[in-house]
Amino acid sequence: MGELRLMKGNEVLAEAAVRCGCDGYFGYPITPQSEVMETLMELQPWTTTGMVVLQAESEVASINMLYGAAATGKKVMTSSSSPGISLMAEGISYIAGAELPCLIVNVQRGGPGLGTIQPSQADYFQAVKGGGHGDYKLIVLAPASVQEMNDFVELAFELAFKYRNPAMILTDGAIGQMMEKVELSDHKPRWTSEEVRQKWGSWATVGKVPGRPHNVITSLELDSGKMEVNNLRFQEKYRKMEAEEVRFEEIMCEDAEYILIAFGTSSRICQKSIELARAKGIKVGLLRPITLYPFPRQAVANLARRAKGFLVVEMSAGQMIEDVKLAAFDAGLSLPVEYFGRMGGILPSPGEVVEALEEKLIKK
Amino acid sequence: MNISDIIKPENLVYEKSKLQLNTIMHYCPGCSNGVVHKLISEVLEELGLQERTIGVSPVGCGVFAYNYIDIDWQEAAHGRAPAVATGIVRTNPDKIVFTYQGDGDLASIGAAEILHACNRGENIVVVFINNGIYGMTGGQMAPTTLEGQVTSTTPFGRNIDLNGYPMKITELIAQLPGTSYVTRQSVQTAAAVRKCKNALRKAFQNVDQKKGTSFVEVVSTCNSGWKMSPVQANKWMEENMFPFYPLGDMKDSEKNAPVSKN
Q: Would you identify the CATH topology of the domain A248-362?
């Protein structure tokens, strides 16, 4: 049993980073996630594990610091919230194009624009469809608890290095700010320079040694033929992720006639909605995508074969619902797929979700 | 006499640095970039820094610098090289890290990144090629374009009312306590090339001694962008650029104590 604590989600991100042997954090303050860097600065990991923590002059700078460090085979991360992630979009595209492993955390707030500092899930499209320019994908993990804020830091790094691809933890101000019991991971040492050289020396800029050509990290290729080959390689990698890395959770779906589909904070709310609905005799279950990319398309299709209808619950105007509909459509299945959500930093209540279920699916 | 009678080790008076790759350069004939690349290669070789050095290339004419010098390289987004270099050197303090940037990259789109990296005293070398124009994109106005200078986006000459003043960013950077060595050089004559090489050597030695940021501006020609022959461009630079961008050291804190970074 690891160390048990009562902590905020944001604080746990910091603890988990230090404990999993992260080499560096580069960030810029923005509500509702500033506790990540504040906690790291209090922990002073440079005096213990040797992890570097640096407050950059902007999100634009932090994501490019990430690029530089990640390109040397280091395990590095940043965190921000929605407007800050928009500023990072350029750098994220370069990181994806240069195939660099790293972790980006988005503790979402309501938008568009400066929006609000309250929780939201309106950056789903930005996270799973790209966000920056060009054809690329992030590995996107959506924690639904403070415990998963701990667990997904290490998982994100593991997947990022496995695929040489940036990974994102897409969470929101509710999970970032709420306190829950968490079992922290045990401390793991940072990779030594020798380990980095052995693991990633074939591509990382660890210093040119005799006997190998120099390593160059770039996303540039002016020869269109070669650039298409690069793109085909990226797409092949994304197809492999889709085949091997899908993660999801099904709650009370065995006998369910109706399925709620929700991730992160809204999935927590939906768990309460299930209780309320079942107390009324409505057989309802929950599908919770954990990886938003790759999306659990097969799980959606399997449920679509036997459910009477889906209610997709999101803290946005309805973004993930498009992927749910596509998954059902591509499997040749047709069933009612409805949306319910709140926006601008408002959380849906469990009762509202049940009302929407009855209104949009059952009474029809 | 046969050519093979001439090419003998005992007749060797000059050889290119072992760090210079054989890739054919994309630079226009007359461009200053090739000379500066040669000098960086020579300095790194002479100081024995090849295995420890990581270069960061910009967006602009220097974008392909990684094709010409045989060290590990990273290609940065436009203007972001100082942030990229910060990420490298903070997590790899034993490495020698330098950025290679032009005036559009460093003084326009990357103004925030360069000022803050220098202000933090990041232990990096910055090589700043100032030719007063955007070469790669076809000769548009740069922040360092002189008043009245004709470019493709100032076809009637840079107008202060419309375009603002040419920016002396190196003078700004010299004010920042994080910088240990700030100098302005050129490479249009053999004497200037030798001086510039000394400046680059000092900059890389400073970083090896962890003295903070060393910043080497090279006032350069862009004869293609300026629509001049290489010879005319050198003359134009001497007559117009040097009075506004005077050459020489702006700051040299030999006594700077080594800066320790977390």
A: Rossmann fold (3.40.50)
